[in-house]
């Protein structure tokens, strides 16, 4: 299966790209942000560990219904780097496990290409399971503007703290196979997505031929048959 790693800084446009890949290009999406929310639902192991570590540190850690107060926890960890590390250590193993399960789910259902949307793709070394990596990037000013429009109530300092806690855009660009520049219109972004998908398709076909079991069986049978024929041929030659 060709896993296409999609990453980018906060509010760079990852979800916009993955939505387009899903709706227009019919690709299945594994969304790490969504998975990271599921693994901290009340009752989950990660939830219990978070409550036990952060209760007393983070004010109003829990909402009335028992769910984590994500904005408050976010405010705390993005201004306390050591505690962000603790939160990552608690959540990432569960997120990684759920990602592998989701990829397996799509593989079993016959998909041979899947988009893995992970904000921390390189930081968490998830790029090692990707055949291709794509980064969505935009200028810092655009990023801050979009972030504050979307997360109403987030201060400039909070927004900058989140950006600071992530890999720099420059490093992402160096480490990615493809870069989508998202400073302009959605149309401009969609054009770039089309170009990348067209380029990836041949890689995808090669991967399918190598790993799709029926193709594997056909090529293995062809090799065995050709070896049998050639050894019969050599035997006949020796007998003459
Ligand atoms: C800190 C939390 C509670 C804040 O929740 P909130 O609802 O405000 O944000 P949300 O989860 O929607 O994330 C929004 C964006 O924040 C950034 N972000 C989230 N977690 C992290 C992190 N650990 N390090 C750096 N950036 C992060 C990403 O760009 C992400 O797309 C939450 O992000 C969290 O539990 N993070 C730890 C798990 C994680 O690493 N998730 C990222 C996917 S692996
Ligand atoms: N080209 C664009 N033009 C205008 N608005 C855009 C463009 N691309 C994205 N946006 C808007 O910017 C915001 C952030 O985009 P999006 O949610 O796709 O980013 P993200 O990288 O998935 O964010 P996060 O890191 O929080 O998951 C959204 O409100 C989205 O509608």
UniProtKB/TrEMBL annotation:
Pfam families assigned: CoaE
GO cellular component, one term: lipid droplet
GO molecular function terms noted in the UniProt entry: ATP binding; dephospho-CoA kinase activity
Keywords (A to Z) from UniProt: ATP-binding, Nucleotide-binding
Gene3D superfamilies given in the database record: P-loop containing nucleotide triphosphate hydrolases
Stored InterPro entries: Depp_CoAkinase, P-loop_NTPase
CDD domains hit by this protein: DPCK (cd02022)
Cross-referenced SUPFAM superfamilies: P-loop containing nucleoside triphosphate hydrolases (SSF52540)
A GO BP annotation: coenzyme A biosynthetic process
Family: Belongs to the CoaE family.
Protein name per the record: Dephospho-CoA kinase
Organism: Naumovozyma castellii (Yeast)
């Amino acid at each position: 299966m060709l896993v296409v790693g999609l990453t980018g800084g906060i509010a760079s446009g990852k979800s916009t790209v993955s939505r387009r890949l899903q709706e227009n290009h019919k690709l299945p999406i594994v969304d790490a942000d969504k998975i990271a929310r599921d693994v901290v639902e009340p009752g989950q192991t990660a939830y219990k560990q978070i409550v036990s570590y952060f209760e007393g540190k983070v004010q109003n850690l829990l909402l009335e219904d028992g769910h984590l107060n994500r904005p408050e926890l976010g405010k705390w960890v993005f201004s306390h780097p050591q505690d962000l590390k603790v939160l990552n250590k608690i959540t990432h193993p569960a997120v990684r496990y759920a990602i592998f399960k989701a990829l397996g789910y799509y593989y079993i259902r016959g998909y041979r290409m899947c988009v893995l949307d992970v904000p921390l793709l390189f930081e968490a070394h998830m790029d090692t399971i990707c055949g291709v990596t794509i980064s969505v990037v935009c200028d810092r000013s655009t990023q801050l503007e979009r972030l504050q429009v979307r997360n109403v109530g987030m201060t400039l300092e909070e927004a900058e703290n989140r950006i600071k806690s992530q890999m720099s855009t420059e490093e992402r660009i160096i480490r990615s196979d493809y870069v989508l520049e998202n400073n302009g219109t959605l149309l401009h972004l969609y054009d770039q997505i089309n170009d990348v998908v067209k380029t990836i398709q041949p890689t995808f076909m090669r991967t399918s031929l190598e790993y799709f079991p029926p193709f594997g069986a056909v090529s293995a049978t062809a090799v065995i048959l050709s070896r049998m024929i050639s050894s019969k041929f050599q035997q006949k030659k020796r007998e003459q």
